[in-house]
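fyi for ur records
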Amino acid sequence: MFERFTKDAREVVQGAVADSRRAGTRTVDAEHLLLALLEREGSRASFALAALGLAERREPVREALSRARRHAGLTRAESDALAGLGIDVSEIVARVEEVHGVGAMAGDRKDAGRWSGRRVSFGQGAKDVLEKALRIALAHRDRHIGDEHLLLALTALPGVAAEVLADHGVTYGTVTRVLYGDGGEAAKAG
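which gave:
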């Protein structure tokens, strides 16, 4: 499938792998793809993010992703659902971190250097984003998968990345309008 990726999309995937390695994780997740997209300049996705005002708000997005990672990758909706059952995720995180250190529930590794040279794999969330990007590109009748398709996929799939983007006004609909105008909404792939 990677042969269908544009140079920009390939660089996003490579950036996500590099971010995963820096974080000491063994898998690339959807959040790593989002972080890599935030670093892009001069591409269709970076244009859309800038048009939606996210270029100036990169740091709050990074902080929100970091906070979610500390909470074992739970979305706010999942944390709220657990709160409805009387489970305080913040309290659990605090107690676990008292015993095991900050970031213990994030899966962050203290021995990250040991994994730096090894090949990282793609987690299910990242795989879903890549597959959804392909479907979106096909729905738009685009021959290649660009970084804009990765951005659209991140907004279309449920999870932390979509929640954080939506909190900043970046949704499938807003990105589609910026990239394709009003006619692009119908191309949301299933």
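Residues 79 and 148 are 30 Å apart (CA to CA). thats all i got for now
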